[in-house]
Amino acid sequence: MDKGGQPIFIIDPRKEQTKGKDALSMNIAAAKAVANIVKSTLGPRGMDKMLVNPLGDITITNDGATILHDMSIEHPTAKMIVEVAQSLESSAGDGTTSAVVFTGALLEKAEGLIEKGVHPTVLVKGYRLAAEKAVEVFENLAVPAKDRELLIKTARTSITGKASEKYSNLIAEICVDAVLAIHEEGKADLKNIILTKDIGGLVDDTEFVEGIVIDKVALDKNFPLRIVNPNIALVDTPMETAKTANKAKLQISTVSDIEKFVKQEDAALFEMADYIIRAGANAVFCSKGMDDKVAAYLQSRGIYATRRVKNDDMQHLADATGGRPVRNIKELTEKELGHAGLLEQDRDDDQGKTYLRDCKGAKSVSIVLRGGTEHVVDNLERAIDDALRVAKCVVEDGKIVAGGGASEMEVALSLRSYATSVGGREQMAIIAFAEALEEIPRTIARNAGLDAINSILTLRAKHAEDKNAGLNILTGGAEDMLEKGVVDPLRVKVNSIKAGSEAAAMVLRVDSMLRAQRADMQEVKPEHMASTYEGMSAPALNMRR
Asked: Residue 253: helix, strand or coil by DSSP?
């Protein structure tokens, strides 16, 4: 109020403002709501969610990142929690549900401490100390993983609980072989693994191809379906009569002139094909158009020919076969040719796929996903995506930790001991951090139909003698997860701790929210209203150039 008693508006009164504990409580409630959405999907016995988009398309999954991505979430704090899942999906490829559940648990524990009088900044400091200690303990728990068998166990663990779990052994082996095939100098670029869908087959027929699969077949329906040890030419230029840049007319006076012109045109086309024949190629992939006469000329000489191959496929063909795409057909020699062990067509009339198999030293490889329906193949694709990403993490980092809630329980116990060495109220935050970590094995037990309290007590007792003890959902007992082959990449656990604690700290530091009201229509100046127009002419505007 000013001296005259008139109100002074610093903030637009049309804006919605929430302050203090109300803002904090609202934000924590939003975060907890997001965590509760995906909590029931965690673990081997987790449930699925059915997502229906406005068009009526259905997605059935228990993948946390997919669920949160496809939901229409508007609350700003809830969006921050979704970003935790998205960041973990991009950096580690798995553990998204665990990270969201952990973040929700951190904020739930913080809410209880705030009600007891602990200031949010104290909690933020305590959570930061706890996160640093947790990362240190996780790294100490990690064991090296270099051999293929441990990679397969890690990939198989990521598939557990998903709809495609029945085929976990097959999927895990395929994904590990694919990652090992394309990794170089300790790095694996998953862009070099091409996933191809083949709806209508059996999941058991899903396969890894050490080479490339493209949605093209030979132009000649009667061409042989197999070529052993093909020499492959990659042509990045049109193999047809070039059109003139300007309009031109050809004066023909006799029938013989027509025949002569056609022969000259054919000779130019066949000359292109002769360059391919002289180079020793018996398979041609052209990214541009190819005249039917050229295709027939090549295929009559036992050369596979196809046209209009996508640019991405051309690059993958080059990476897989070692060939070099040429833009000048006259430059094609034996040196530019790619090689494979087998070229094989799977065609149905004019449609189908071409497989280039057994490409030695291939930098691009393929996985062919097969299933009876589109929903089956989509679920399989999500499972394979997770398995590929965790295999990539282990190949690059070379470290794993025990799964099944074992590592979270060990870190929680270590944090409880660490809290006693920290003075002040920060130790309360550290203990809350430990309790939030225990929410992971507690949720796994609850989703498996076990008594959560008994399961946690059993794990705590077992960890006195075995730091890798996790929950066996079949028996309800605690067993060594490393021996059982239930393992996770270290990167997943570390990134989950970092992302979750940072998101919780951001939420706890907010003490005021300002929300602008949504405008239904932009304000229009009176002189631009339709009622001021005379006839159909708008008012003139003075514009300078």
From this structure: coil
Asked whether 207 and 358 are in contact (CB, 8 A), the reply is no
- Kindly report, residue by residue over 210-260, the tens digit of the pLDDT: 999 999 999 888 898 999 999 999 999 888 876 655 566 656 666 565 666
DSSP secondary structure code for residue 502 in this structure: H
Find the CATH number of the domain harbouring 55.
1.10.560.10
Report the catalytic residues.
63, 96-97, 386
Please give the distance of CA 83 from its chain centroid, rounded to a whole number: 14
Instruction: Number of helices (H) and strands (E) in the chain: give both, helices first.
Output: 16, 20
Is residue 176 included in any domain, yes or no? Answer: yes
Angle at 31 between CA 492 and CA 407, to 5 degrees: 30
Identity of residue 362: A
Residue 63 falls within a domain, yes or no? yes
Gap between the Cα atoms of 460 and 231, Å rounded = 62
Pairing of strands 226-228, 399-402: unpaired
User: How many whole angstroms separate alpha carbon 389 and alpha carbon 384?
Assistant: 9
**224 shares a domain with 192:** no
Q: Please state at what angle helix 120-141 crosses helix 490-508, rounded to 10 degrees.
A: 180
Find the angle CA(414)-CA(417)-CA(419) to the nearest 5 degrees: 105
CA pair distance 137, 168, nearest whole angstrom: 30
**Model pTM?**
0.78
> 318 with 239, same domain?
yes
Q: Which domain holds residue 113?
A: 16-143+402-513
What digits encode the pLDDT tens for the residues 316-361? 999 999 999 999 888 899 999 999 999 999 888 888 899 999 998 8
